[in-house]
Structures are given as structure tokens and as C-alpha cells.
Amino acid sequence: MRSELAGPGARVLVIGTGTRAPGSALPDLPSVERSVREVADALAEVAGAADVRVVLDPADPRVAGQAISAAAAEATDVLVVYFVGHGLVSADNELYLATAASRDAVAGLEVDSLPFDTVRRRFGRAPRRRSWSCSTAATRDGPGTPSRP
């Protein structure tokens, strides 16, 4: 059986953020790079994905958002976005995906981290039949609480 990820209209994007800027209150996640590579390899080798792109340690939310927008615009069949890194929850209970620019679990989320709502909107604009968004993230119980693996 041919994998739907092997088709010319499928796009797979694996994003991982494990390194922070100096002075960040968020801990680095050293295993992110290996996890991103393993997920990308598995999607290509096991699931047959023909177009797997990797964005490791995006400098800021704009870089991550542009990668998602590009994959969504090109996907005509299947779109997969997989995130590995810190998931941060704002005081308004909104989910943000950390980037290398993320400095704090609460302060500056709106400018340093990618709002998950942005990811959701990009998916809504994609001209595709199916889409999946996956994440493996160290999450927070609420603003300012410690990360859990």
C-alpha cells in the first residue's frame, strides 16, 4: 500500500526548539535535536514521506510561522506539522510554542513564542485533504509553573 505521505501533494514539517538565547529562564532541552532527526527519519523511511523538512531552533516565531505557512501553501493532499519543544501556557490559557527567542514562561510570550492559534489558522488555509498537527512538548500547568517532561 502506498503511503499518503509519499504523494507529490504531501508536505511534512518537523520543528524543534531545544536551545534558548543566553539569559532565558527556560531550560534548554538537549534531546530535541535527536528527537527531531529521529521523527523526520521515521516519517521518511517508515511512513514513506517524500517531502520532509526540518526547522531546528527557529530564531523567533516569524521563522517558525513562515515555515508552516510555506508547507501549508504547498500541500495539496496531506499536511503534517510535528513540534518538539516547550509548550507554554499564557495567563489567558493560550498555548504557545517556544522558539530560540523565548525567554520566559509568561513574560513576552506574545513576541517570543509562536501562538498555537497561528498554527491552527495556517492549517485552515491549506488547500489539502488531510492534516495532522502533533507535538511533543514539555508543558506547564499554568503561568510560571515548572516544566514537566
Automatic annotation (TrEMBL):
It comes from the Bacteria. Residues 126-149 are annotated as: Disordered. This is Caspase domain-containing protein. It comes from Actinokineospora auranticolor.
